[in-house]
Amino acid sequence: MPNEIIASMKYFQLLxxxxxALTGCSSRKSPWTIIAHRSAPGYLPEHTLAxxxxxxxxxxxxxxxxxxxxxDNVPIVMHDxxxxxxxxxxxxFAHKRRRDGHFYAIDLTLEEIxxxxxxxxxxxxxKDTAVFPSRFPRNLARTAFQIPTFKxxxxxxxxxxxxxxxxxxxxxxxxxxxxxxxxxxNIVKIVxxxxxxxxxxxxxxxxxxxCFDPKALKMLKFEIKTKIPLIQLIGxxxxxxxxxxxxxLKNKDGLKEISEYAVGIGPSIDDLYALDPESEKPIVTSxxxxxxxxxxxxxxxxxxxxxxxxxxxxEEQLLSFLMKExxxxxxxxxxxxxxxxxxxxxxxxxxxxQFRHKDLL
Length: 361
Hints:
By secondary structure, this protein is α/β, with parallel strands linked by helices. 35% of the residues lie in helices and 13% in strands. Helix 1 packs parallel to helix 3, helix 3 runs parallel beside helix 6 and helix 14 packs antiparallel against helix 15. The chain is globular, with a radius of gyration of 20 Å. The N terminus and C terminus are likely disordered.
């Protein structure tokens, strides 16, 4: 690898670590569990180690990595089993494209994965337009960021836990176990062994393990017999995240069954409200209440002030609704620092106004 690329990578990682001096938070008490979704994607390309450093500087409760496997069975941190949208794979490994037109992480070895650069998530074909145009420019991320292994990610969090003194946890998501199984790989056991090697079986307060697939979570609970708290993610059926009807998981019977193997659910924010047909204002659904009746925590995804859900005109309105009406227990956020700023402001109208007019720092 050219020296200038290595130097560039180190520069961005050190820059993020240096932000502790500017954005670090003192010890805090929060009514919410604050989860830095994909590290700090509001500011840096998702799931990079630089993003981990930035998210840690905010004193979040947990940092969330998504985990997939390489061809040689190494767990790496990527949101997708596909490499298309967030790397330069098409420029470096055009011959790895499958007949469906996509590039899969599972078709590259770790050595090949490490030759890729992580870009801001793109859309279109070619993927040259950012999903979130105001975020880190795609043209500036072509040499600075790599895909980390899950081990590198956990080492980073463990090191930052020591150097900051923050009680920094990790909230991994096992991506598409059924797909990996169809490729001859057991991602559940591989990811679990990596987690176990870092001692998290004995540190359950520093970890949640999540998945959309109930079969994977049941394997962890009843076959592997882990003590790690598990979270059942609830998606949309059209996403094809797992062979399950997610609608059945949201009723009383479904939530009761979830409570037998998990400690909480991770629904979309969309599942927690409906729009009143007359006023078009958000009204709370029964999901969070039913979950709490079954002893389940509720950690919805995803807070994005640059992409508010339908029916919410301001970020403050969204956060107030989630905390005071839906009464969720935590939240996944692309801008976790804004949640930390908002929580102490939530008791004062004057402070709310100050928050409302802050720039997206």
